[in-house]
Specification:
Elements: E1 2-6, E2 17-22, E3 28-31, E4 37-42, H1 51-67, E5 72-76, H2 88-102, E6 122-126, H3 131-155, H4 163-174, E7 180-184, H5 186-192, H6 195-201, E8 209-216, E9 225-229, E10 231-235, H7 255-269, E11 275-285, E12 297-299, E13 305-307, H8 315-326, E14 333-338, H9 343-348, E15 353-357, H10 360-373, E16 377-379, E17 397-398, H11 407-416, E18 424-428, H12 450-459
Parallel strand pairs: 1-6, 2-4, 2-5, 5-6, 9-11, 9-14, 10-11, 13-17, 14-18, 15-16
Antiparallel strand pairs: 3-4, 7-8, 8-11, 12-13, 15-18
Bound molecules: ligand BES and zinc ion (ZN) (2 copies).
């Protein structure tokens, strides 16, 4: 989306629609003097408007404008501040992020309507706009761009997004930035001893990839933050095949991986002065005569073994290898992001991702950054008692819990066994894989948690 600046609405062509707010409930289009239109949005109690509500309001503006097929809007920054204490930069960034996210639709596979798609093309900011506000708009636009690029990957059907293509997308996304991308193939993965990645991909005709992205924004030799993303390009469940409609949307099981890829690219685009590494183990989980059997034992890169009780708990198997590989970077922090267990949805609903962290202060800070970014997260315990439930019989660790309960926690405790030697954060983003009704986002991928990861890279 393009932003332009103008002293007054009168200086702009008549087709530019002015955005205003009223205290009424309804949203409507007003005919202004001189033939101009205004889009009037109802904000019933403006004094009670919170940051969370402002996020939705910004998206609503674009969603309503799109529905009316308006492609050019104008607004005054001050009108969006209400009684919130936000700096110009912060406010402008929030608006640009959410305008951009609301302007997204996945139309790749659709026949365009006769009258064309209705996307917002240009937004004019009226009045005096500080250089800080301009910076915020620019940053917000970059952030929205990467969130939406992440949504594109996640929304792409499984047939068109096997591990090989996901790796190509990483290369493409990094073009023109300082990010270096490598994609290891099956033989290199074998050489590294990543028995987990190999095991899960055995049943698929598509070979695995291990995607490595490196961005050096900080000093040479400075410890990096390593982001690890689950890249299951389609999750059938394997031999423990998913029943009924549980397989729907499983082309999105690489949402964590896509978020990591685009967060590393975003770090480069924002010029974040940190060293960042992105690791994405990419596999397709298929039922097949050549695939994993329940009872198989896999040796991971660290030497620890996994007893596979259920081939559908594949995410933690490939992440075990990636977390082991992360150690090579001597990282300051490792953050993994995964659509790991449906139990996360049972625990939290669809409004926040589950947050696990080995350090209490880091956990609190991430919660705050969650609020600020709009990628909301909620903390869960990493108590060692839960590890009892994933202790193996034939192998070291079971990939599914002996207990029926607390699946989101036992999955995290499984991962913790492989996240050794560094501070570690785990985000189960199952709850935020898909946008909800009422969020003023297109159906499909929500693009979480790219906004949060960017904030974490900047501020932790
Ligand atoms: N990819 C799924 C988790 C998932 C579920 C993501 C719903 C998005 C929406 C994961 O690989 C999985 O299948 N987990 C199992 C784990 C179980 C076998 C212990 C689950 O959640 O049922
Ligand atoms: Zn699964
Ligand atoms: Zn999965």
């Amino acid at each position: 989306m393009r932003y332009i600046f103008s002293k007054a609405i009168e200086d702009l062509p008549k087709e530019v629609v002015f955005v205003q707010f009223s205290k009424e409930k309804e949203t409507y289009v007003v005919q202004l003097e001189g033939g101009r239109k205004a889009l009037s949005l109802g904000v019933e109690e403006p004094e009670k408007l919170t940051r969370r509500k402002l996020v939705l309001l910004a998206r609503q503006v674009v969603a309503v404008a799109k529905a009316h097929r308006f492609s050019r809007l104008a607004f005054s920054l001050q009108d969006f501040r209400f009684s919130l204490k936000l700096s110009d930069k912060d406010l402008a960034e929030l608006l640009a992020v959410n305008f951009g996210m609301a302007n997204y639709e996945f139309v790749e596979y659709k026949t365009p309507p006769k009258e064309g798609w209705s996307f917002m093309e240009e937004i004019a900011v009226l009045g005096k706009v500080s250089s800080e506000a301009k910076k915020g708009l620019e940053r917000g636009n970059l952030i929205a761009g990467e969130v939406n690029a992440c949504r594109d990957l996640v929304n792409t059907p499984g047939i068109d997004m096997p591990p090989r293509v996901l790796a190509e997308c990483a290369q493409k996304a990094a073009q023109g930035t300082k990010v270096k991308v490598k994609a290891l193939g099956k033989q290199e993965i074998e050489k590294l001893g990543m028995g987990g990645v190999l095991g899960v991909s055995r049943g698929s005709a598509e070979e695995p990839r291990f995607i490595i992205m490196e961005y050096q924004g900080g000093k040479k030799g400075e410890k990096p933050v390593v982001l690890v993303g689950k890249g299951v390009t389609f999750d059938t469940g394997g031999l423990n095949v998913k029943p009924g409609d549980a397989m729907t949307d499983m082309h999105m099981d690489m949402a964590g991986g896509a978020a990591v890829l685009h967060s590393v690219v975003l770090a480069a685009k924002l010029g974040i002065k940190k060293n960042v590494v992105g690791l994405v183990p990419a596999v397709e989980n298929m039922p097949s005569g050549t695939g994993l059997h329940p009872g198989d034992v896999l040796r991971t890169i660290s030497g620890k073994t996994i007893e596979v009780l259920n081939t559908d708990a594949e995410g933690r198997i490939i992440l075990a290898d990636a977390l082991g590989y992360a150690k090579r970077y001597n990282p300051k922090l490792v953050v993994d992001v995964a659509t790991l267990v449906g139990a996360a949805l049972v625990a939290l609903g669809q409004r926040a991702s589950a947050l696990f962290a080995t350090d209490e202060r880091t956990s609190q800070k991430i919660q705050e950054l969650g609020e600020e970014s709009g990628d909301y997260v909620w903390p869960m315990p990493l108590w060692d008692e839960y590890a009892e439930d994933v202790k193996g019989t034939t192998g070291d660790w079971l990939n599914t819990s002996k207990s029926r309960y607390g699946g989101v926690i036992t999955a995290a405790l499984f991962l913790k066994q492989f996240a050794e030697g560094y501070p570690w954060v785990h985000l189960d983003i199952c709850p935020r894989m898909i946008a909800l009704e009422g969020e003023y986002l297109a159906k499909g991928a929500a693009g979480a948690p790219v906004r949060l990861l960017a904030k974490m890279l900047e501020r932790l």
